[in-house]
Amino acid sequence: xxxxxxxxxxxxxxxxxxxxxxxxxxxxxxxxxxxxxxxxxxxxxxxxxxxxxxxxxxxxxxxxxxxxxxxxxxxxxxxxxxxxxxxxxxxxxxxxxxxxxxxxxxxxxxxxxxxxxxxxxxxxxxxxxxxxxxxxxxxxxxxxxxxxxxxxxxxxxxxxxxxxxxxxxxxxxxxxxxxxxxxxxxxxxxxxxxxxxxxxxxxxxxxxxxxxxxxxxxxxxxxxxxxxxxxxxxxxxxxxxxxxxxxxxxxxxxxxxxxxxxxxxxxxxxxxxxxxxxxxxxxxxxxxxxxxxxxxxxxxxxxxxxxxxxxxxxxxxxxxxxxxxxxxxxxxxxxxxxxxxxxxxxxxxxxxxxxxxxxxxxxxxxxxxxxxxxxxxxxxxxxxxxxxxxxxxxxxxxxxxxxxxxxxxxxxxxxxxxxxxxxxxxxxxxxxxxxxxxxxxxxxxxxxxxxxxxxxxxxxxxxxxxxxxxxxxxxxxxxxxxxxxxxxxxxxxxxxxxxxxxxxxxxxxxxxxxxxxxxxxxxxxxxxxxxxxxxxxxxxxxxxxxxxxxxxxxxxxxxxxxxxxxxxxxxxxxxxxxxxxxxxxxxxxxxxxxxxxxxxxxxxxxxxxxxxxxxxxxxxxxxxxxxxxxxxxxxxxxxxxxxxxxxxxxxxxxxxxxxxxxxxxxxxxxxxxxxxxxxxxxxxxxxxxxxxxxxxxxxxxxxxxxxxxxxxxxxxxxxxxxxxxxxxxxxxxxxxxxxxxxxxxxxxxx
Length: 750
Hints:
By secondary structure, this protein is of the alpha+beta class. It has 18 helices and 26 strands. Among the domains are: 1-9 and 140-199, no CATH class; 331-514, no CATH class. It starts with 53 loop residues before the first helix and ends in a 5-residue tail after the last helix.
């Protein structure tokens, strides 16, 4: 790693012999008598162990620049620097030497820059500067650091030596002679503060370095963006725009969307600003609403713990954010448009008492008020107010409005509340929710419904009604899928879907008294509804910590023991049913923490679960025949069949890493249980699911147990590459990296 920049010394200048060459190099003769050819002074070959990255090259260039000093009181005229600009390292970080006392008779304007030993000694007859002082020779560049003899091969060597331990030659051989540098022009102005030029170094856990301010998220995003775009490999399209590439799971190279180099910085700033607002508002109003499901949906204040921009919503004004943010408990009436019968497209598998209910009839009942349908219009569609304003600027939608095929009815009905996904709205007592199209970029994607996702929701509902749901409920009666049985959309005059107008009708199986919460909201800390100490903010604690602590007080057991039992019940009530569906039907669910709903009993123990999301279904290609026999024609319009290789990769990430390992991390970070103990419990659960008497047919338990590495979704790289997870083939929608499997390599608890 890089040593302290203030301890760098360029070394004293050596005496140059009178017969030396103008460049300062000796020219010894070769055995043939011909003088050896001098090396260029501007560059030389680097040792093979030096790592070349944009950041390392910048550091080595800056740190080997001679220090800037003035030998007279008058400043030299400013001249442009020959070195590259644009970095923070604009001055040599060497600390300023202490001024020595001026000898008697020395003019005040001729100051000594260093100790006498560092001043060069010129041969007799050399010209001298005014005041009788010889001209200074610029110091030599530091020698390259080489690997110490005791260092293991492959271990990175420090780039620069220090005062106490200078850079040494490799295996005792003398280093390459450093080329002499030509005198560089002085830069006017004071040098930068040395603390800002200090190297990055690791801090022990629980300790904070003194006099070292922490870097804020926006600055870190800017540095990461700059480093990534500097080293990005890609091509250039015909328009001259740089494009990059990614690899799918089979190793094929595919093109990803053109990234915006400043996009990450802006979105990180937006996310941080909104998170601060959410926490401040919740501290001022900590009380939850009486609807327990809605209160849980409004509890996700911090968002995804491993996402760079979990709360970014670019395009929302402050007044709009107050209405449309679930974290601020916003609510708003829906904006309605009437659709001509020639453009309306619907599908419905919703039944009541065995009879199908068309989607337009459902929409009229859910509106809560009489919809004034103009003549020639077959149904009315609800829109998010932000989306209603947005589509008015789209050329295709504006043409339909001008032609009278779409009629703007304005905001109507009672207010609806946004849930944790922002675009899905809920109203207490309503039998269904609306999953609206919303063009805002939330996390990695613009959240507009795609037609294949609408088909997928209805298709899964019909598949479960073929008898699969009864088999599933017989084995695991506490788990089910929140159904999306109906939808409405608009087709253009050319017969293609008009984006931004499709809406999904989602069944609402919960009453206001049901204690149900998404796992992400359950583990998120939030301000407590208790009086705060004088002058201090309200303490923050997650609902998970509250539930476990209450159970420990009620049972008189240690918090760690209660946490372990709670975790084991979660595995049985949530994870095992998901594995059953994969093994028996070949359907893998994208069950990450926000899509997984946990039902708690009156005491707070896990009693069941639900899965929601019409986007996150993976039908295994190897089970196509079985699924087609259950529902003929399945997958023709939904594009849901995925290769087993991709299914295994995504299933292991969403259920294994994001859901279960994320829950273990929450227990550990909130000091509720030892993570090693929970990892051992999870390992025993997987062993029983893979080889026990009640073993499951899903390949995931064996994969999590036996694989030394796992594929993990890299949200930061996905954001830097400008990928939209809802667009393109499923195997290249996001960036995945390889990580060590903690279930395979974690040591047992002591």
